[in-house]
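call fold(seq) -> tokens
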Amino acid sequence: MRVKIKSNFHKYFTRELIKSKNMLKSILVLVSFFLSGITYSQSQCKVLIPELQGNYTGKCKKGLAHGHGKAVGEDTYEGNFRKGYPHGEGIYMWGSGEKYEGRWKMGLRDGEGIYTFQKNGHDTIQEGIWKDNEYKGKKPKPPKVVHNEYVTRYSFRREGDGNRIFIDLKLNGNINRDILDLTVGTTSGSTFENGRSIGVETMVFPVTIKLRYITWNTAHTSRHTCSFEFIIYEPGNWQVDITN
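ret:
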């Protein structure tokens, strides 16, 4: 009787072990199949930049590098691809040692990035905005709020070249026409009013503007004194919305 129990236990243990091995094999097959679906060699998946042609590892779509991957040829690129071209965020290393890290658009530097290269024997860094592979300059410095008292929301929007700042004072989403004792101070330029907006024109950038006025609260139950001071660094026409 004891021998029979041991024999049955041995058969059960052996059967479960075989099941476990088969399950492990199935998992390995699935993992291998999944990886084979997203990783390709250069011969299976093309990169359309000649200097990057050689070896490619990464995602592919319709025979072209598409998604995250790494291409190594005369130059090296690692990052996002689209239809065979660097597109999105990525790092490009030239064979000569230069490096660009940032945004790409269909094989061209486009957007914010950092370019590192040698100039007169020294490392030089060019950081800013690129468009169609050309450097356009440093990233514009955004406006800065210096002081805020009783202003619930505000926004700054550059609207092309020019030399005017339009300021809309709002309450509950509408133009606030119940303003008392409004004063506008500016470090340069002159103030104006055009019926809907107040503003400053012919100023020298950067310019600091300070507003002070009395208005109702959102429930129209009491008035309070508002103070709002800001700096705009970049020249242009600007729209500033201030909401109480």
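Residues 144-243 form one domain.
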